[in-house]
Amino acid sequence: MNQLPTLDSGVTYLDTDTPSALYRVVARHLEEQSGPAYWVDACNRAAPVTLSDALSRRACRSLRVARAFTGYQHHELVRELPARVRPNTSLVVVPAVAALYADDDVPDYEADQLCAATLELLDAVATAVHVPVLVTTSVDTYVDDVRAAADHTLDARATNAGLRFEGAGFRTDVYVDRWGVQTTIPYWVDLLGVAPGHANDPVADTARGTDALDAAPTLGEVLG
């Protein structure tokens, strides 16, 4: 059952307006991987209460957080990553990666250079030690630059049943919450295959490519 994506080595851009998407992906990755993880923070994405609520105690213990308040501080923290990251590093997280460069206290000409250099450094770190680097952005100014610099892109959006993730080779097909499990049509197609006579049915093909919350009917099962 695919509810959350896995992270491959390289820079992954998580495109979302839902803050919890970042914590869900990080939590899943740190639960399955050993080794230290590094979080270069901006805009208070790594608030202690938020992290403790989102991550298990084991995941929190593996996480090293450095916080920046200006674009200059942020760039310097990213510059320190090559000296800290090792082959056993499990993850590098850089949320709101371009936010501080768009602040008024950084001149435009310098902000562009700092942002470009930061993205180059993150790519170099990911390539050198084959580590996943997860980035998000909260400003429109550099979103195209961030997307272009990423090796992978994950889209996440909120639905009535939970977060839906989609990327190359991945799409959420099961939604799990306290109320139970909501499955989708693609989940059952992958599990059971397409019924005879429907392999070339355009209606069936449309349903397979549609989120279960937007298609009718949907299939659900509740766990007691």
Keywords, separated by commas or semicolons:
single chain, alpha/beta, 2 domains, Rossmann fold, 8 helices, 11 strands, eight-stranded mixed beta sheet, 38% helix, 224 residues
Please identify the structural class as seen in this structure: alpha/beta
The helical percent reads: 25-40%
CATH homologous superfamily (4th level) name of the largest domain: P-loop containing nucleotide triphosphate hydrolases
Number of helices: 8
Distance between the termini: 18 Å
Number of distinct beta strands:
11
**Mean pLDDT over all positions:** 81
**Low-confidence parts:** 201-224
Strand neighbour order, sheet with most strands: 3-2-4-5-1-6-7-8
- What characterizes the major β-sheet? 8 strands, mixed
CATH architecture of the largest domain: 3-Layer(aba) Sandwich
CATH topology tier name of the largest domain: Rossmann fold
How many domains? The number is: 2
In N-to-C order, the SSE pattern is: EHEHHEHEHEHEEEEEHHE
Describe the protein's topology.
Blueprint: E1 10-16, H1 19-32, E2 37-41, H2 48-54, H3 57-61, E3 63-67, H4 71-84, E4 91-94, H5 108-129, E5 132-135, H6 143-149, E6 152-159, E7 162-167, E8 170-171, E9 174-177, E10 180-183, H7 185-192, H8 202-208, E11 220-221
Give an overview in words:
This protein is 38% helix and 23% strand. The longest helix has 22 residues, at 108-129. The relative contact order is 0.17. The model is unreliable at 201-224 (pLDDT under 50). The protein has helices at 19-32, 48-54, 57-61, 71-84, 108-129, 143-149, 185-192, 202-208; strands at residues 10-16, 37-41, 63-67, 91-94, 132-135, 152-159, 162-167, 170-171, 174-177, 180-183, 220-221. Helix 4 (71-84) packs parallel to helix 5 (108-129). It folds into two domains: 10-158, 3-Layer(aba) Sandwich (Rossmann fold); 173-221, no CATH class. The strands form two sheets. An eight-stranded mixed beta sheet has the order 3-2-4-5-1-6-7-8, with helices on both faces. A three-stranded antiparallel beta sheet has the order 9-10-11. The chain is an alpha/beta fold. It contains eight helices and eleven strands.
